[in-house]
Amino acid sequence: MSNHALENAAEALRNARCAIAFTGAGISVESGIPPFRGPGGIWSKYDPELFDKGYFKRHPAEVWPVLRKIFYSGMERVKPNAAHLALAELEAAGRIAAVVTQNVDGLHQKAGSSVVYEYHGALRRMQCMECRAFFDSDGIDLEVLPPPCPACGGLLKPDVVFFNEGVPEDVHRAATDLARRSDCCLVVGTGGQVAPAGRIPILVKNAGGTVIEINRQDSLYTYNTSDYFLEGKAGDMLPRLARAVLEG
Ligand code: APR
Fold this sequence. Notes:
about 35% helix; binds adenosine-5-diphosphoribose; Rossmann fold; SIR2/SIRT2 'Small Domain'; three-stranded antiparallel sheet; elongated; alpha/beta
């Protein structure tokens, strides 16, 4: 990737009136969290059917051990990487207004980002499918699966969006309103294959905004939506872009 593209992308971000970041699993890969698609992806090891809301409700004893293995075991050791930290730095410098993320790992907040819209929920919370109460996942013992609701003994579910489950309406509304008001979107580590979250960069583009994409390979955005494509690992490219923006 030429420095020319990076310089131009930095200029666009510097000149933006209201810029947002839109992130996917690729930004957390260098923190040790596997992506969903592509080599080594979660969907290459586990049947997505397990993550269907109805299937989970019918077979919780089958699905919960998989959830624990993928999402909970060892999560306390996972740290934000240089890409998450670069976004937090850009927010602190007033260069991005918010992060809209599809990720449920909470690494943006751990890196210091304060305005984060979590389109697909967050692993730090669980919700009871019977009494609807919410609980901090840290307080739930995962030795016994499925973990019973502390309030009513019902079935607990991670507060993340499963297949055939709607996205949180309040986040969807706030994120799309913000995208429509933004004139620059920094897209990091997402293939753009999942709606409605995946439409965020397109809303910015349709409103006349500029789209800067960082990905290891081309995505559904690259040839139709992105104005700048910075090919490479998020952990390398984002800090370089942030430095160019902040020192420019
Ligand atoms: N740096 C930058 N991009 C990367 C890196 C990296 N180190 N590693 C992988 N990528 C890119 C891949 O090229 C791909 O475009 O990250 C993207 C990962 O794609 P997915 O695994 O499909 O993740 P995402 O786009 O976030 O998926 C969206 O799909 O299954 C649902 O709910 C799930 O939130 C998820 C949604």
